[in-house]
Write the structure tokens for this entry.
Amino acid sequence: MKNIILTTLNSRFSHSSLGLRYLYANLRELKPQAEILEFVINSSVQTIAEQILDKKPKIIGIAVYIWNAFDVGELVKIIKKVSPETIIVVGGPEVSFTPRRVNFDVVDYIISGEGEDSFYTLCKEILDGTCTQPKVIFSPKVDFEKIALPYDDYTDFDIKNRHIYVENARGCPFECEFCLSSIETKMRYLDVDIFLNEIDKLWNRGARNFKFIDRTFNIKISYAKAILDYFLAKQEDYFLHFEVIPDNFPEELRGLIKQFKPGCLQLEVGIQTLNLDVAKEIHRNLKIDKIKDNLKFLSQETHAHMHIDLIIGLPSEDIESFGRNLNQLYTLSTGEIQVGILKKLSGTTLDRHDKVYGMVYNDSPPYDILKNDLISFSLMQDMKRFARFWDIIYNSGNFQKTTALLFEDGKVFENFYALSKWLYKRSESTYKISLDRMAEFLYEFMSSKHEKELIANTILEDVMKVGGRNIPPFLKKIIPQNNDFTQKDVSKANKRQQLRSE
């Protein structure tokens, strides 16, 4: 039995909640009465409720995010029906701002903002029977250097099986209107020596998989250098993920990044658009020349694996502009290009564009755009399928040589758009398409414009890059069986990154 259960639904089993561990670490004398329980979205909500209530908690604290808001809404309804006396407290970005588009009327308290101090105070008052808090608690920003750090509260199981999320800064200096991070433009940093001491303790316990949630890791070069130096001194293999801004890679940082071995470093690079007029409309500052130079450097002179973000549906940007962005990025980088659909998150200032550009959004998570004055609903649906097929064909790395052939005329967007339209008509689905089936679809589509033997051999070479794969049955009928293909043994954990880096 525990008086306090801290819980959330992560998007994957391999993920862990840093926010829950911050709350847990700052419960002070109440910490022995608390326990963290983590679940995964799309699990049975009733089973989750059962496992939580088995602990007979007096208080349940739930972290709510865009990916789990609907499931959490269902979870709290069930808990309140089964155990109405149990106090439910929700917090996190999805409930910190209005409008709250998922109904949380049945919860007892909503903590809006950073909850490390507020959650402790609320729990103490509830357990003492002295609580006079309002239902919505507007929590001020904490003193980042004075709150308890959560890293000792990662369990040995977490370290062995999950990504370890860490942060050495909060806030973002930029004002991009689609992003919640733009709400706090003043940066708050932990002392870098204190932070690295926590990392060192995790490392000594066996942690080798670190995801930094700092929005702009390379904004303060001295901090970035200290952290990179720490890991470069290690001899064992590890994996680091950073979110970086694309225009701030001075020579001192470049020299360090060039030293990382393949498979160690992943960079999420926020581009969103290369159209300066569109960027200005959403308060995003772009330095195009620096971005081009840095992407070229990262692609040609480092082993860093890149995720480069582009967004469909930004105010004032039509599909032709998005297509030019994609065509250009393809020439600048060999990394993954993450094609995202614009979402309107509560708390951002995107709504100021709604009337001007006819922006219409889904009222349910993930609050994605449905149409605007430049992109019809039908075309937006096409682009959502485009994004899905782009991920499973191009970003996966499974068809690297095949897509290079598809894009050989430089018309990346135009050719892939035609492919995605054809694929959806042919398959009537964007999910549960096997590798062999997709290979056959690509052969069927491309053989109308390319020499069939060339297409078949290119697809076969792509498919057989990973050791242990079998030749797709349809190719056995086309290609002589005496062909010799070298099969490379690719680590399963980093297969996607290694495929794209070759």
Notes: The chain has 19 helices and 16 strands. The longest strand covers residues 265-272. The domain at 163-375 is CATH 3.80.30.20 (pyruvate-formate lyase- activating enzyme). The chain has three domains: 4-139, 163-375, 435-501.
